[in-house]
Amino acid sequence: STWGISNISNCFNVLDSLTQMVDKTSEGDKSTASWMQVIENIDDTNWTTNLEANLRAISIVVAPPPAVEVRFEDLTWIYSQNKSDTKIQTVGRVFKKIARAPSTLFAKPPVVKTTILKGISGIFRPAKLTLILGRPGAGKSSFLKAFAGQLPNKGKYQLQGKITFGGDSIDSNKFSLLRVASYVDQIDHHYPMLTVEETLLFAHAMQDVSGAISSSESPQVAAVMRELSKRKFKVRAILKVMGLEHVKDTLVGDEMVRGISGGQRKRVTISEKLVGFQKVLLMDEISTGLDSSTTMDIISALKSMARVMNISPIISLLQPSPEVFGLFDDVILLDQGQVIYMGPRETLTTYFERIGYHCPQEKDYADFLQEITAPEGQSYYQGPLQAAPSSRTLVQMYHSSDTWKQISEQLHREVQPFQWRPQQKKEFLLSWFQTFFYCVQRQRKLLFRNKKLVKAQVGQSVVMGLVTGSLFYQLGEDEYTNRYGLFFATSMMLAMGGFPELGIVAVQRPVFYKQRDSGFFPASAFACAQSIVALPINAAQSIAYGSLMWWMCGLT
Q1: How far is Cα 131 from Cα 51, in angstroms, rounded to an integer?
Q2: 453-456: long-range contacts, CB 8 A cutoff, minimum separation 24
Q3: What CA–CA distance (Å, rounded) separates 395 from 389?
Q4: What is the DSSP string of 313-359?
């Protein structure tokens, strides 16, 4: 279901090298023509290999992209809430409160602070596949969202600590976090009426560096990147890598629309992020609803891409199979917002046996790790202590281990400054009008694919026009009361004409939130596009209703 690693390397390293290129030839304007000729001569059956060979022939070095090291120190997230918020306020409780002590009704309730992440420090090694394990409620999702900039840090929330990408803090202006890190939610949100390829093409258009390279900066690179974009170069590669090529023309679908399977929909969710150029992929419970075979295919593809593209996939899983667990390079074990272990997967067994934990032969090691801090995990302890150590003790043991000492030494080493590209400093890669244009194209496609809704809206206007015209048939000029009633009925009809779209808006809202938070487009561009596309339908409804009502009611 996945592609060969050499072809993956050829495809993505060519693309990344193009974004870093400057004019290295002495031929001037002829270089652009040479590159265009190379692209046009690509053989469809083996296009990535031929492209790499031809680009090398004209002295363009195809090299793996640089990696980004992520460091974090004393990462803490605190949530404050009023003590009274823990109970549902009812009318009876309010009167009971007044009866007990009237002065406490308007008194400020005490504040309770809950620390979700507790002083976590460490390093994500670049180009390594990292697994985050922990029981539900351990803080895995909050931990991942902290690196994607999706944790609130105002009002009731406090985010403390330091996070750096390539030696630069996320609060600095040297790069845009949206262009460097990408968060993949455990729930799949997509437009059901778009095909797999159309979904990825839109995501690629919103994250396409060819639109962000100015012709004045590098005309040769800009021209080549535009040509590659026209040929769907990266989208075609992603479809092959993720095993989606055979369903590219199938609707994504949902519970109401027949489409691809749940496993394929999860691959589409991941592929949406892979078509961008983010260096850190933060994936939260991506195995939810998938069988072990599909999870194995996805993790294998991500491991290959991490090795050849120098990206850092950081993935949280609840119950990975032994085969999936064996694919990861590093493992982070969380419990109650603290790190119990962080380091290479190969040293896991040695570390826990040294502190007294032994995994039974019939137990999967990933399940064994998650049960260490649970009550049932006490039976695994065979150490010198009288009872199994608590979560706090396990954290202290980790901080006194050689594994933590090595990470601590790395945290205090100086990081070589990362050379951020101009495209990685932009919040949105495309201009407002470009994103507006793409959103209009997509919304128009979504609208006219739902032909039943369009016909129902226009038919409703015709029926309501006939009903209104019958009720107020041929009004006299002196029937002012009836005319006021007609105007009110008309206003209500036109105002409520869009009610059938509320269900569609409810489905589209999670998709909008996801893409807005990922830096696909400004919210204003999406809102304007949706309004523009809806204008013809609204105009058709008004004309159908107004033309019948006007003549039947005698308003001429």
Answers
A1: 35
A2: 453/500, 453/501, 453/504, 454/537, 456/500
A3: 10
A4: EEEE-SS--HHHHTT-SEEEEEETTEEEEEEEGGGHHHHHHHTTB--
User: Considering the entire predicted model, what is its pTM?
Assistant: 0.81
Instruction: For residues 55 and 42, give the distance between their C-alpha atoms in angstroms, rounded to a whole number.
Output: 11
The C-alpha torsion from 510 through 513 and 514 to 520, rounded to 10°, is 140
**Residue 251 · residue 193 · CB < 8 Å:** yes
Cα separations (Å) of 333 from 80, 97, 330? 26, 45, 10
Q: Quick one: residue 519, left, alpha or beta (phi over 0 = left, psi -120 to 50 = alpha)?
A: left
Quote the CA–CA distance of 218 and 222 in Å, as a whole number: 6
Q: Which residue has the tokens 């193009």?
A: 18
Asked whether 156 and 340 are in contact (CB, 8 A), the reply is: no
Question: How far, CA to CA in Å, does 531 sit from each of 426, 443, 499, 528?
Answer: 27, 10, 15, 5
The whole-angstrom separation of Cα 22 and Cα 59 is 12
> What was the pLDDT predicted at 542?
86
Vertex 94, ends 90 and 100: CA angle to 5°? 140
Q: Three-state DSSP class for 212? A: coil
> How far is CA 269 from each of CA 1, 55, 120, 222, 233, rounded to the nearest angstrom?
17, 32, 29, 28, 19
Tokens found for residue 315: 């993935």
How would you write 165-194 as a 3-class SS string? Answer: ECCEECCCCCCCHHHHEEEECCCCCCCCCC
Which residue in 523, 519, 521 sits closest to 182, CA to CA? 519
Kindly report which listed range (80-89, 176-185, 239-248) carries the lowest average pLDDT score: 80-89
The pLDDT of residue 153 is 87
Q: What is the mean pLDDT of residues 310-332?
A: 91
